[in-house]
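seq/struct pair 1
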Amino acid sequence: MAGKLGPAVAETVLTDPRTGHERRRIALGGEPEVAAAVAESRAAAPAWAALAPRIRARRLLRLADLIEERSAEYVAVERAGTGKPAAEAAGEVENCADLLRFYAGAVRADVAPAGGHYLPGRESWVRWEPLGVIGVIVPWNYPLMMAAWRIGPALATGNTVVLKPALTTPDTALLLARDAAATLGPGVLLTVPGDRDTGRLLVGSDVDAVAFTGSEAGGRDIVTRAGLRRVSLELGGNCPALVLPDAPPDTYEALVRAATYNAGQSCAAPARVITLRENYLETVEGLAKAMADRRAGVHFGPLNNADQAARYDRIIGQSAAGIEHIAPLAPPPGEEGGHWRPGRILADLPPDDPAVLEEVFAPVLTVQAADDHTEALALANSVPQALAASVWGTRTDTVLELAGGLNAGEVWVNCCLEQTAELPHGGRGGSGHGTDMSVLALTEYQRPKTVTVRVGRG
């Protein structure tokens, strides 16, 4: 728990993914730390929930201001933990502040069902009440932004939060807890750094709900441990991109930019390009040319950690791709020992290739061909994940029909990986359930109570 950790049960060495060198050591939260954080959060919950929405909103706005005032510090530690280029890290700090401001306003709009005269001699209305203490567990690919997606609606609706960041990227979560204590009040947002065991302890503790962003395996484990408590899950992607023969001229560059943003470590990034046979070779060549201009170390950062680099190496090593285009590597001087991996285009793949079936979570695009639109949709929908997808073409009727046939929570047409606080984001199937962003996310952290009053003699 930020600022109040007891005797450390264990310590871990954190490395800089750009160099592979040690950057700091940090204590891992064990059972005493998790229990203390949840108890403090529980004690703070009644007063925080009792605040009028405008007061909570004002405090959230002050937290957003403080994050922006200290943006240089946030950017520096975010880069140290993730290796992101400065522009990416700065954009995500800005996004975090924007999300907090959005929910500070959204909670005052009151999206509850309207009350009224629904029964003879009675008046009814619906109260939306906070769940209580929310255990939030976020991944290492967007440490600050994923935290904002979860804590924004949870805090705005009157819950308190215990945040468990990923093992390799606790830095900005610790800053959030520090700045939240100064703006929201003590105990409203606490951070407990740690590993998977710390996360399991948090899920098993006296929290009222769990919000988790991470792997499908992690999500299944949380559902088992959470029992009957509310769980919101955003899991893997392995997202398809349908590229039609009449796709816009900038399609290949746009797909490669999206696939290499954050070194491809985004659940909503394109991963599997699916074409018709008539534009298959053209697409492979177009993507290869675009990828050759995107260099790890210049245009995007390294993979986050040694385990993720090993995953990339394993899947690429097992792939039976007959066509492979590899972009150059260009790590900065002195950073050659980092987890740098090049962008890749893989084509001429068997349908059961591991690069197709597994989410590589790296700057890799596979390319497959289909005989017609029906087969293209079947390939797109053939994996367990169903988070996001895109369609690229210029015939409105065709692209909208395909967008409707894609099994995904979010679909882009002639663009990709573009999101804003006003629009919901969430998955289906192996990509989990629940909603991030938009006013719809407010109900993830509330429960309705119907109140009916007798006002007549009947």
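seq/struct pair 2
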Amino acid sequence: MAAEFAIGEYILVQDGRTFEIFHCLTEARRYHVAFLGVDAKPHGDGFRVTIGARYKDRIANGVPLKMDRQQFARFQEFMAPVIEARDGTNGP
């Protein structure tokens, strides 16, 4: 069963080894977890999170999201299985 996380105008969906980002005005972005990059940095009283294709030491064409502390805590729980699946993959 797929898990979903809604934040602002985005819905993030993780289903095993597939991760998708949906926005009402753009085409969905779909990644295999082996290629997924996530970067989170403190920003004001919350966090700025960027999700996209991991390429070398950066994220290419990432989606920037702003989260407060509560949203970020829920996001971390949501992402735990994705990161576990990614780190168990022999990808680039």
